[in-house]
Amino acid sequence: MSGTARIERRRNVQLRLGVNGEDTEVSFAPYKTLLELLREDLGLTGTKHGCELGECGACAVLIDGEPQLACLKLAIECEGCSVETIEGLARGKELHPLQAAFADHGGSQCGYCTPGVIMTAKGLLDHEPEPSRERIREATAGILCRCTGYQQIVDAIEHAAAELRGERK
Amino acid sequence: MMRLPWFDYRAPRSVEEAAKILAWEGNGAMLIAGGTDLLPNMKRRHQMPQTLVSVRQVEALKKIANGSGLRLGAGLTLTELLAVRGLRERYRALAQAAAQVATPQLRNMGTLGGNLCLDTRCTYYNQNYEWRKAIDFCMKKDGEVCWVATASKRCLAVSSTDTAPALIALGARVKLVSAAGEREIALAELYQNDGIDYLKRKPDEILTEVLLPQPDGWRSSYWKLRRRGSFDFPLLGVAAAAKLAADGTVEAARLVLGAVSSHPLVIKSDALAGRKLTDDVIAEIGEAAQSRAKPMDNTDMDLRWRKHVVADFVGYALRELRGDDMSAMRLRIAKQLV
Ligand SMILES: Cc1cc2nc3c(=O)[nH]c(=O)nc-3n(C[C@H](O)[C@H](O)[C@H](O)COP(=O)(O)OP(=O)(O)OC[C@H]3O[C@@H](n4cnc5c(N)ncnc54)[C@H](O)[C@@H]3O)c2cc1C
Ligand code: SF4
Ligand code: FES
Ligand code: FES
Asked: What residues are in contact with ligand 2 under a 6 Å CB criterion?
């Protein structure tokens, strides 16, 4: 699809991308956003559909390790990318430390913002294993939460970071 | 669901190829970089290009070069821009502006070129199709009148880019390339005071590079007013830059306001030359800027108040240039140190 080739509006496109570590081939309508591709074509509804305009952060996923908004990302531009969503975190029945910490510290109430916050937090901790509270606030400033008041979100990320560093169990 | 309208899609790998496609496709084509402005607009049916020409795969637009100054590729994301070594020390206003654009996730996607070409904004325009239809649309798109000033012959939508005022204050130039050739202009010359035709860029021109002069003793500062510490577009942006002599006398200065007009508003600041940035001089310049600012009632917050704080914000910027410790005020206004 790259280079000079034209993608035409009426024909489905077929492309490969990595989703949660698995090489995936998918065929879809070319106007779709990554959010629509994940939820509608791949059945991965963990990534939430909020405002669709970049104004809430509920749809944040990791693209090549960086938190980005799936609602403003053309799916055709994800060819060859590695996409990580909330579904990829748990190992079998065992929760990822971030998921466990959100449950333990009240970081998630209605849960609508939680996948976006957790993926953003994972993006942060993958690069910076020991962020200050200030840095956690800064990194998650692109996601609105209408329930928690944010304090518990920061607590949860701080605890998960400590656990990931092996300081708590 | 707000679906994107249908489009054909091209992803050229070089500027030449992109320019050829634009020339061939004519007015039906639009460039897309990060898509963080264009895609919401397409969902709301503000723009419905026949063809999207993506510049994401054009490596040349990611170049950073030091030489006599700094050359920044228009395709750098704002996150990549903020990581440019020495940016904060040499071009502080640009770093302060870029760090306050949107949210971290959006800065990972949105580019410098897209920020400079950002569509103008208005409460009667940045709404979905049904909402706009319910008010019979407006002059900027699909309608006749301007709801902000019904007697106005032109659209008064607001220039809302954060980096443009900062870059103009820093004396930036931009390079525009089309199939017919290329030109280099002062960034201030890219804009005009019209909410619809806000850019003097021709539809087939690609903004490829931003060129900054050597800092050469210039200092700069950017202050932004918005409701929240994240997400929001500017309700006022103040960019100031000055070259100060060793004793603090201003040798030259530039002052630019964002979000109070349909283009970045350059304020004449000759009055500063040869004087020191005393409290009185700062107050005088702040008042002069405030009288020039004409914010309209088409964005967040009370109109009179937005005008009223212009002098204060100019003051913060000039005091920062003078060397005052502004960190407490910065935390209050920006909710972060930038
Ligand atoms: C919730 C939200 C909040 C935001 N807050 C802010 C904010 O506070 N301040 C701010 O300044 N912006 C803000 N933005 C707007 C936007 O995210 C940024 O301005 C971003 O830098 C735009 O870059 P882009 O690459 O995504 O542009 P795109 O959407 O890809 O393009 C924007 C426009 O520029 C044109 N264009 C893109 N690249 C080029 C090029 N190289 N040459 C010529 N034309 C080009 C496109 O055709 C289009 O018309 C916000 C957006 C959202 C959704
Ligand atoms: S300023 Fe007037 S014409 Fe322009 S977008 Fe707003 S209402 Fe429409
Ligand atoms: S759904 Fe993507 S930011 Fe709200
Ligand atoms: S937990 Fe409900 S929005 Fe965050």
From this structure: B 122, 124-125, 138-140, 146-148, 155-157, 195, 298
Q: Which residue of A has its CA nearest to B53?
A: A6
For A125, residues 6+ apart whose C-beta sits below 8 A from its C-beta are A98, A131, A157, A160, A161, A164
Q: What is the pLDDT of residues B193-206, one digit of tens each?
A: 999 999 999 999 99
Q: Where in chain A is the domain with CATH 3.10.20.30?
A: 3-88
> pLDDT tens digits, residue range B225-265?
999 999 999 999 999 999 999 999 999 999 999 999 999 99
Q: Which two tokens stand for residue B198?
A: 């806000």
CA dihedral B201, B206, B212, B213 (to 10 degrees): -70
Look up residue A55 and give its two tokens.
């104004």
Residue A143 near residue A57 (C-beta atoms within 8 A): yes
Query: Tokens representing B36?
Result: 């963080």
Residue % of chain A over a pLDDT of 90: 92
CA B76 / ligand 1 centre spacing (Å): 12
Average pLDDT over residues B33-59: 98
The answer, yes or no, to whether residue B43 has pLDDT greater than 60, is yes
Tokens of A127: 């690069």
What superfamily in CATH does domain A3-88 come from? Beta-grasp domain (3.10.20.30)
Checking if the pLDDT of B321 tops 90, the result is: yes
Q: How far is CA B239 from the centre of its chain?
A: 11
Dihedral over alpha carbons A53, A56, A62, A64 (to 10 degrees):
40
Distance CA B153, CA B126 (A): 20
Cβ–Cβ under 8 Å, residues B155 and B139 = yes
Average pLDDT over every residue of B141-168? 97
pLDDT digits (tens, 9 = 90+) for A53-72: 999 999 999 999 999 999 99
Ligand nearest to the CA of B162: 1
Task: Please report the pLDDT score of residue A4 as a whole number.
Answer: 60
Question: Do B15 and B60 meet the contact criterion of CB atoms below 8 Å apart?
Answer: yes
**Pairing of the two strands B236-244 and B218-225:** antiparallel
Q: What is the pLDDT of residues B284-302, one digit of tens each?
A: 999 999 999 999 999 999 9
Structurally, at CATH architecture level, domain A97-164 sits in: Orthogonal Bundle (1.10)
A12 at B interface, C-beta within 8 A: no
Q: For the whole model, what pTM was predicted?
A: 0.97
In chain A, CATH 1.10.150.120 covers 97-164
